[in-house]
Amino acid sequence: MAELQAAPLTQEALQAEALSKLLEGLQQDEDNTQDEHAHFMHMAIPRIGIGMDCSVTPLQHGGLSLVQTTDFFYPLVDDPYMMGKIACANVLSDMYAMGVTECDNMLMLLGVSTKMTEKERDIVMPLIMRGFKDSALEAGTTVTGGQTVVNPWCTIGGVASTVCQPNEYIVPDNAVVGDVLVLTKPLGTQVAVNAHQWLDQPERWNRIKLVVSEDDVRKAYQRAMDSMARLNRIAARLMHKYNAHGATDVTGFGLLGHAQNLAKHQKNEVSFVIHNLPVIAKMAAVAKACGNMFQLLQGHSAETSGGLLICLPREQAAAYCKDIEKQEGYQAWIIGIVEKGNRTARIIDKPRVIEVPAKEKDGELW
Amino acid sequence: MAELQAAPLTQEALQAEALSKLLEGLQQDEDNTQDEHAHFMHMAIPRIGIGMDCSVTPLQHGGLSLVQTTDFFYPLVDDPYMMGKIACANVLSDMYAMGVTECDNMLMLLGVSTKMTEKERDIVMPLIMRGFKDSALEAGTTVTGGQTVVNPWCTIGGVASTVCQPNEYIVPDNAVVGDVLVLTKPLGTQVAVNAHQWLDQPERWNRIKLVVSEDDVRKAYQRAMDSMARLNRIAARLMHKYNAHGATDVTGFGLLGHAQNLAKHQKNEVSFVIHNLPVIAKMAAVAKACGNMFQLLQGHSAETSGGLLICLPREQAAAYCKDIEKQEGYQAWIIGIVEKGNRTARIIDKPRVIEVPAKEKDGELW
Questions:
Q1: Do B14 and A125 touch (CB under 8 A)?
Q2: Which of B47, B129, B146, B315 has its CA 20 to 30 A from that of B108?
Q3: Which of B37, B73, B151, B165 best probes binding to A when mutated, by most A CB atoms within 10 angstroms?
Q4: Pairwise CA distance, residues B130 & A274, whole Å
C-alpha cells in the first residue's frame, strides 16, 4: 500500500524534447534583456541564467549572489521514503555542480495524486516528506515552506537557494585543453529502475531474462536507489580542493546531453571526448538487450540524481578520485579528456564499459 | 486553439483539505527542530517557517534574510498570456503580503499538458511564459530559470526570492486592539471564472440566468482577470508608509481562511471581525443562486491572486485606501476591525456586500 506508482516511461523523452524547445524561446529573451554581468567594486560578478544548473543573481548587498535551482519530477522508485530522499538529493545536486556546498534554504513542491485513496495519501505523502526533510538535514539545511497541490500524477520536487560570495561557487566555463573528465556516480539508474518494474511484467521480462537474473536486477535497483539518494556534497567540496574548472550534474538529458551542454558554455575552444562508461553492474547488458530503447551506451539514457561530471586538471584528477573514495567509500572515475575543439562533446566509437558492482561502501554485498 | 482548458472545480476543495492535513505534519516537525530566532549583533532575527506566506531564513551575512515563496496551480482563465501574468502576480503576492517590495529573482515552474497537441503546446506555452515574464518585468525582477515537465494537467507557477534587511519586511504578527482590516481587491474571482465557463454549459447557465445577464458575466470575468493580474506591489509599499501591523494575501482558503490564519499568528490577544464584503458586481447574487457551492459570503470561496488583507492603525487606514486609489485607480476597503480576543477571525451574521463595479481604472466601463 505504501508503494508509489511510477509514471509512464515515455514522459522522459517527451520532456527532453518539449523542454529544449521551450527553453530556447526563454533563452533568446534572456539574451536580449539582461546584462551578462553586474559589478561590485569594479569586479564583474557573473549573472547566470537559463541553461546551466543554477541561476546566479548578483544582489545589491556587498558582492553577494543568490544561487538558486528548482527541480520536480515523478516517482520512479516504489519506496516513498527513498523517493523523498532522491528528490531532495536531485534538487541539491544542481547547487553542488556549481561547487556550492552550503544550502541556506529549501522549499518542497508536492503533487498529491488524485488516484490515491485517502488512506494511501496519508501514509505515502508523509513518508515522501520525511525522506525529503531527512536528506535536507543530512545536507545541513532545512525545508521552510513549499506548495502542495492535487494532481493526476504524484509529483515531488523542490527549490534550493543559497546566498554566497563569488569564491563559494565555481562558474562552469573554465575547462582547458589537457583537463580530464571525472564522473562521481555510475550510469544506468533509469535502466535499473525499469528492469526492476519489469520483474512483474512477464512479456517485458522475457526480453531481458537471457542477460540478467532476478537477483542481479534487485541488486542493481538497490544500488541505483542508494546512488540516487547520495548527496553530491562531498564531490562539490573536493572540487574546490582540487581546483576544478567546472562541472555539471548528469540527469534527464543523459551523460552526453549534459556533457554537450557543459562544453557549449566553455570560454576556451575545447571539446570533451568520453572513453569510459561506468555502469551499474549488468545494466549495460540489459540496455543492449532492449535495442534502441535506452541509448545508454550512446550517452542518452536519462539519469536521476546522477553524479557530477567534472573538468579537473590532469594532475589533480587521480587525487580527487582517491579522496572521494576515502571519504565516502564510493568510487569516482576518469572517463574522458578535454581537447582542442569547438565546444562539443562526444563518446568514442567503442567506449570501455566499467561494470560497477552493486556493493555498499562497507564492502557488504546486497 | 490558443485556449486553455481549466481544471476541474473540485480540486480547490480537495487541495485545501489535503494541504491542511499535510502541512500540520510538517509544521510539527518544524516546531521540534528549529530555533525560532537567529541572532545578529544581539538582535533577534525571526525565522518564519511553514504556515505564513513566505519563509524567512536568517543568513550568515550581516543581518540579511532570505525571503522566499513558491506557488503553482492550474489554468483558470482561457487566455494563456493573462494566465501567465496571473500566475506571476500570484507568486509575488506572498512576498508583497510581507511588505517586501523588491524581488531579487524568480524561477518559473511549468507543466505542459499531455493532452495538448504539439501545435497547441507551441502556441500556448510560449504565451504563458511571455505573460509570466512580462509580469515579472513589471515587478522589477527577472525570471532566471525554472523547470518544465510534462503533466496530465497544464501547470503554472514559480518561485520568488529576495535577500533583505529586517526593515524591508513586516512580520505579520503585530495587530493590536483598535486596528482596522483593509482589503485591497474585491472578492469573487472564482465565482466569476466559473460563471464565465457556464456560458457554454446550458444546464449550468440555467441555474444562474435569473440573477445575471451574459453581459454581466463577461464584465465580471474581465474584471476578475484584471484584478488577478494586478500586482500587490503598491499595496505592499504603502504598508510601510502607513505603519501596517501585518498582512496576508487572500488566495485558496478564501477571505475567512486567510484571516483566521493571520489571527492565529498574532502576538497579542486579538480577534478579527469582518463586517463588509467587497465583491465583483453581481457575483454575490450568482454565488447565492448556487446554494452552498461557493460559500462566498461565508468567506470560504477560493480566490486566485487576491488582495492583501492588512491590519492598519485605525487613523491610518482611510489614508492608506485613498493613497492606493490615487496611485493605481483601484479602490481598497475597510472591511473589519481588530478587537480583544483569542486569535480567531469571523464574519458577522449579515455582512454588508459592497458591489464593486466592473470598471477599469480610467473610468471606462467594460
A1: no
A2: B47
A3: B151
A4: 38
User: Is the Cβ of B47 closer than 8 Å to some Cβ of chain A?
Assistant: yes
Count of C-beta atoms within a 10 Å radius of residue B97: 31
Chain B CB contacts of A47 under 8 Å are 144
Show pLDDT as tens, one digit a residue, over chain A (366 residues). Answer: 345 544 433 344 444 455 555 555 554 444 443 344 444 444 455 566 556 678 888 888 878 999 999 988 888 999 999 999 999 999 999 999 999 999 999 999 999 998 999 898 899 999 999 999 999 999 999 998 888 888 888 999 999 999 999 899 999 999 999 999 999 999 999 999 999 999 999 999 999 999 999 999 999 999 999 999 999 999 999 999 999 999 999 999 999 999 999 999 999 999 999 999 999 999 999 999 998 899 999 999 999 999 999 999 999 999 999 999 999 999 999 999 999 999 999 999 999 999 999 765 544 443
In angstroms, the CA B259 to CA B270 distance is 12
Lookup: cell for A64: 553577494
Gap between the Cα atoms of A324 and B163, Å rounded: 34
Residues of chain A positioned with their CB less than 8 A from the CB of B142: 33-34, 57
Q: Which of B82, B130, B70, B12 is nearest to B230 (CA)?
A: B82
Q: Collect all residues with Cβ–Cβ distance below 8 Å to A313 and sequence separation of at least 6.
A: A178, A179, A242, A243, A245
The ipTM value here is 0.73
Helical ranges in A182-313 per DSSP H: 189-198, 202-208, 214-229, 233-241, 254-264, 283-289
Q: Which residues in chain A are contacts of B114 at CB distance < 8 A?
A: 11, 14
**Chain B residues with CB-CB distance to A33 below 8 A:** 137, 142
Q: From the centroid of its chain, how far is CA A145? A: 23
With beta carbons less than 8 A apart as the criterion, state whether A250 and A297 touch. no
Pairwise CA distance, residues A250 & A309, whole Å: 7
Using CB atoms, pick whichever of A30, A62, A147 lies closest to residue B72. A147
**Residue in A with minimal Cα distance to B71:** A147
Q: Name the burial class of residue B114, with classes exposed (0-12), middle (13-18) and buried (19+) by CB atoms within 10 angstroms of its CB.
A: middle
Q: Three cell numbers at A32?
A: 536580449
Residues in CB range of A193: below 8 A, 6 or more apart = A6, A76, A77, A221, A224, A304
H helical segments located in chain B: 10-33, 80-97, 118-138, 189-198, 202-208, 214-229, 233-241, 254-264, 283-289, 314-328
B64 - beta bridge partners?
none
Question: Given B18, B50, B133, which is nearest A144 (Cβ)?
Answer: B50
Q: How far is CA A307 from the centre of its chain?
A: 6
Grid cell in block for residue A335: 572517463
